[in-house]
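yo

u said u wanted the structure for the complex thing, so here. seqs first:
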Amino acid sequence: MIAGRPGGTLTASPGDPATDRGVRKAGLGRTTVVFAALGTALVILAVVSACLGQVPTSPAEVVGSLLHRVGLDIGPMPAHPAGEVTLWEVRFPRAVLAMLVGAALGCSGALLQGIFANPLAEPGVIGVSSGAAVGASAVIVLGGAFTSGWALAWAALISGLVTTALVYMLSRSDGRTEVVTVILTGVAVNAVAGGLIALFTFVADPAARDQIVFWQLGSLGGATWDTVAVVAPLTAVGIAAAIVLAPKLDLLALGENVARHLGVDVERVRQVSIVVVAVLVSAAVAFTGIIMFVGLVVPHLMRMLLGPAHRVLLCASALAGALVLLAADLGARILVDNADLPLGMITALIGGPAFFWMLRRTRAQQGGWA
Amino acid sequence: MPVSPRTTLTVLFLALATVFAGACSAPGSDSPSLAVATGHRTAVVDDRNPRPIGTTPSPHLPATVRGADGVDVTVTDISRIVVADRSGTLAQTVYSLGLGNNIVGRSTAIFPAGEHIPNVTPGGHGLNAEAILALNPTVVLTDTSVGPLAVQEQIRATGVPVVFVDPERTLDTVAPGIETVAAALGVPSAGTALARRTLDEITAARESVPTDHPDLTVAFLYLRGSAIKMLGGPGSGADALLAAAGARDAGVVAGLESQFVPITSEAMIASAPDVILIMTHSLESVGGPEGLTALPGVAQTPAGKTQNIVDMDDSVLLSFGPDTGKVLAALVEALYRTDAA
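structre next:
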């Protein structure tokens, strides 16, 4: 099941747009509907998210505040003394960061599943998340109590990238990689990373220990416009690169050999894709910590709805990822009064059962993934 | 862990001393000078509410202080104070300065009189920026025991002055901690008075240690169930309290190098404590004194054999606030009183 067989079973479903014109037409209509629904839901949720929080603000006040910012003195300003500053310094950047990180995770998951032709592929497999966690824990332990969020983010970003590079280089032989080798190398590197994280947890003092644990549970609590300014361009570049790669991923889905005969430099596509995934995920987790399951579940869900054509799939996964993470973060910050719940907890609690449901459904309809 | 002959001798000596002392503390013993308390008892601070040093002081504002993060912060209004630190020391200090009515938000560890104030760390650790801003604070006093730091910086970015106090909590930080808080709130003279009262009480508690007290090695344990077993070492805070109470910290004796170290059962045995000092919740998590003394590693120590356990409320033991003198006095009382229940 782990093996990425030629013509990966996931992508050889009857809805393959390259082979079935009838389905393709229906698929186009469906694509429009799904994108319209995702887009509408995202806009509505963004508005809801902007209105809800621990500082009480009414929708009219939020709209009023927005209009005042663009120079129109229409509508009420927030009545709460901290309302205006909260909206602009806390709530808005947090919602924007949630969407960016969700989009990055969703898109990178779809990309990785595409190049590996493997349903288990998610960014964690190639070591990005655990590598980032090693960098973050090291800085937490070595940096002391006042380690800045920026040092933490850069350490996570860089160690995520380095770990991914390590997985790729270790699994390469004779100038090429095999999917199974990459995944198994990832398992080995993840194990070492897990050991390093345990080591840092052991040597840390109690406060640092808490920080390490909570970093791995994920939170958007520290979002500012500065973090948005770092994450946004990386996410945009990553998603754009993924979309450029999409046609080659479609050919790769026909099997490595077929793709090679059709003129695709399979190894190059894989290299570039892994770099793109590493950039997307490192940027996503650097400021937020590890967020589980979004990169795995969202692309599967979109594939079930839209079929395997990658250009559509990558865009839809990014949109749906943004939607899911915005919703999860809204829950994280309003479900319990005054508390900020671990984001990873919410995504895993919802993502796990959702994944199971998809598994059962796919099995019933197609006889399973493998 | 290699055991030097000296350690072995010490262990033997201590074991003998404990047996001897234990025998002498039998009911009706007429030589109290060599007596040592045995059995489980709780060190109780009779009133957990801090005592204000005076009436509400009038602040001199604006006040500018340099926080523990090296940032100069100017406080212009102390009418709405949020205090957030794990040990609850900051709330105790503000209350003791006579400004209890100005506290609008607090963290989980709190004295009874502050329980009605909204808790901004309901999970015990994580801060939510909006929850704090919703209280419309004019100043936030905090340290790095709660976080994440990004949230505290976010609050500062909204224009609310955020003062970081030194996160270290030990006997030496008691007076400077009080004075920093008082300076930040523009009430330095109340701070000086409170620091003096606290230091006087600590001195009095030190002097209450019986001159002929038994020589005790005390292990400060942090436990959560039988899986998490940590021994306090230098800097845990308990080491300083125990030193002030005339006892030795087993973690320091054993050569630990950090505040809390997860230890093996054998290291526990080798540290050979006569008494185990533990926070009340830790004790509950292992099923009380019987559960604690049944743990492998604890059962084989002198303290385990005689069930010589002192527990103390989590929120007071290591808070090192203005009530430190009372805490130390309660600890001395529990360690050396021979009429323990």
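Residues 205 and 281 of chain B are 25 Å apart (CA to CA). The longest strand of chain B covers residues 217-224.
cya
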